[in-house]
Amino acid sequence: MYLIRGRTIRSGMTTFCFMCRVHPLNLHYIGHLSSSHCTRCRLGSAGSASAWVRVCFASPARLDHECPSSTCSSPMDPRFVHNSMSRFRLIWNHTILHRPTWRDEYIYHHRTARNFRQYHCSYATLRPSDHPPAAPPGEEEVAEQLPFFCLRLALSGDHLAAGFSDGLVRVFHLPTHLHLRTIHPLLRDHLGLFSRAVSGIVLLPRADRLIFASLNGDIHVVSPLAGLDMARRAYLGDVVNDGALVDFAGSDRFWVGLYAGVPGRAIRVWDAGSEELLFVGGSLTDPESVMGWHMLTELRPAEPVGRVRVASNELAICSTSLRILVLDLEAHAMVVGEEAARSGIIVGSVDAIDDVFVMVDARGVGRVRYTRTLREVCRLDRGPLRGAQLRGLLGCINGLYALMWTGGVVRVWDAEHGGYLYSFRERVGEVTAIAASERHVVASADDTTIHLWDFGA
User: Fold this and answer.
1) What InterPro entries does the entry give (predicted)?
2) Short-list 82, 92, 69, CA closest to 14
C-alpha cells in the first residue's frame, strides 16, 4: 500500500491495469496508464526504496496496443473495454461515457487539456437580453424597475445555466450557442426587490436535472431538456425566520444553502434524492446578518456575503470574509475543518472541485488547498494582487487551472504548481459571475453579456 497525496493505492496489480488514483491536478502531463512506455516516479520525500510506482505515458495512438500479453484480441474485446473504462475513470475522475468508446473519450479529454494549457480556444458571446421573457400578469411594472444582470453560472457538459436578478434561469446549448429555455420559478409575495434573485444553481450531468435557489429561500427543481419552462418548488423559503439564502450549491446527493440574517441558522443541508432537510445550524454568517438583509433590496454581485461549494468527495466549503468551514455532508454536516482568516478572505475567489479549493486572501495572495485538511497545495505566483485588482475579484477552478477575473481580464494559473500561465486576450469589463469546466470558461459582464471560451478538441 502506498500513499499519494492522502490517497491510498495498491501495488501488485496485473500489468493489464495498474489501479492507482491519479490526482486530477496532474492531468496536463499524465497520459494513459499502460504497461509500456513507463517511467518510475518516487512517491514522497521520506518514502522507502520500495515506494515507487510506474506512472505511464502513452499517446492516444498507442491505446490499441496496451495489452502486451495478447490476452485481449482487439479493442472491441470486453476486457479491453473494461480496462480502458477503469483507467479513464481513475485518471479523469469521470464515470459517464459521452462518446462512442472509452478510447474516444480519453482522446477527447487528452486534447482538450492540452488546448487549455496552450490557450487554444474559440471565443463567442451569448446575449440573454435578446431573449426577454414575458412578465407574469400583474408584474409588468416590477419587471421594468428591476435591474437585470446575471448572478450565477453553472456548466455541465454542453449546457450552461445562467441565473439572473429577475429570478429566472436561462439555459444555453454551448456548441450551437442557442438559447434553449427560460425557467420560471413559482411566484409568490416577496419581501424586497431582489428576493427572487437567483442565489445558486446545481446543474447535474447531461443537464437532466437543474436545481436553483432564490434569495428568499425558495428552491426549485426542473428538467430543462424535458420541455418544461415552469419549475417545481421543492422547498418553500421563510426569509423572515431564516434570513436570506445568499449562496447555494450541491451535487447529486446533497444540497447546501448558506444563509445570512438570523443568528445560529447559517447552514442548511438537504438530501438531494428525497429533498428532505437534514441539518440546520451554524454561526458562520452571524457577523454578516445585516448584510444578508440588505441583499434583498441592494444587490452587489461583486461583494458576496458568503460562498458555499460542494466538492466531489461530499465535503462542503463554506466561506465568509472572516472564516472558512469544511463540512462532511455524509456525517450530518460535521465540521472537519475550520480556519479564521487573519487577513480576511476575498469571498468571490473561493471555488472547489474534486478534493481541492482555491481562495485569495485580503492581502492578494492566492492559494490552492485541500478541502479536508486545508493544507496548501500551492501558492499562485506572480506576486500578490494589489488594490484595485482585488475589487470585485471573482475566481473559479476546474481541477487543472485556477482562473481569476481581475482588472478587466481573466487570468489563468496552473493549479498544481501555482505557475502563472496567461491572460485571456478579450477584455470583459466588470464581471458578475464566472465558472469553468474542463472544456469551457464562461463569465458574465455587468451588461448581461456572457463571454464564452471553448477549449474543446
Assistant:
1) WD40/YVTN_repeat-like_dom_sf, WD40_repeat_CS, WD40_repeat_dom_sf, WD40_rpt
2) 69
